[in-house]
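Title: Request for sanity check on carnosine N-methyltransferase prediction

Description:
We are preparing a figure and want to confirm that the structure record we downloaded matches what your pipeline produces today. Could someone re-run it with the sequence below and paste the raw structure tokens into this thread? We only need the token string, no images.
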Amino acid sequence: MDLPEEAISDQVLLERTANSFYHYKDFCLQEIWKPRILKWKSLSTYQKQLIPWYEDYLNNIRDCIESNSIFYMNLLEKCVGIWGLGSDPNKWATPNNVDMGKTVSILNQIAREWSADCSEERDRFLALLKDFLDSKFPHDRRDVKVLVPGAGLARLAVDIARMGFSTEANEVSYHMIMVGQFIMDSGLQKDQVGIYPFVHSFSHHLNRREQLRRVNIPDINISEELGGKGLLSMVTGSFPDLYGPNTNIKQSDSYSNSAYIREIRARNRSTKDLVVTNFFIDTASNVLDYLETISHVLKDGGYWINFGPFMYHFEQDPQTEITADFNPYTGEVSNMFVTPLKGLELSHEDILSVASTKFPFKIIHEQSHISSGYGTNKMDISMQGYQCSFWILQKSCDKVNNNI
């Protein structure tokens, strides 16, 4: 039976993602380790004697890469059957450089979400969130529906479910979904697995030990925390595509126009009590699409809680996409337009102003300049980090929202 075009596309993305995990070791040895070995060999005998330990250090780099590769091979062993992938990696679609870059960088994301090393980072938001949830929802939390879009490896969604709320995690990246599923569904014990997330970067280290430092994951026993409670679910796909209205958003790469998806969006209207966005809203090419979606999926009286910076992901992206209007009932397309991915980077004040004057939101609380890292080595001496905004908005019952 032939697969429909959309299914073929998803299959290719899955194969590229899995193949990027499979080729992680080869990629890192070629792009990271080999140039440094060649650099070492190019030194004069005199200069080699100045740093006689350097070759051993590079061998340690290789060992760390190999250890990370074992983590990915274990992931593939678990996930290949679940995702319906063929058993021969040579027949999978070939990953591109972006896929390989994600496979490298996601190791920092794993440390950020699932290690004790980054608990202080996570707690910057979690403490603020918990204070609000404790005050507003002291009882009957299972009946409170929470949506976490851009859930990444699902740690925040897990933490909210641990508080007793019915939590839905939404993520579009197959890299995130496959790794997150492996971490959560493999029965890992606390600190069972070691990875080396900082091995790929050679700048801003106080000493070599920090670059080669092992980070243990997960920092909690997930199955004991959530097992059998039925409080956490995961949904794959674009946030606006699945949860947005059928009006006011243009068809694009992240917002499709099939009758099936239009029906899903209609069913998701006013179904959530809370939408919690964490390091997420600046991932939008059009942040107004996110505002439309949050307004659509929230119940009247529901809350939008946000934490994160404004480092717009598409600010420097030269790519374009085709956008178009469409009839929400027939799907008929009109006004197709070649649209830059960059170009709509709204500030903290802009978003709150639009949300409170053009959308049905009132501002309950706002705060800015909250310092936070994101998966960084805590011994990093570059002073890298983010100034984050935190706000709580409530969808007002007395403002009309006619989205369908």
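Thanks, this matches our download. The chain has 14 helices and eleven strands.
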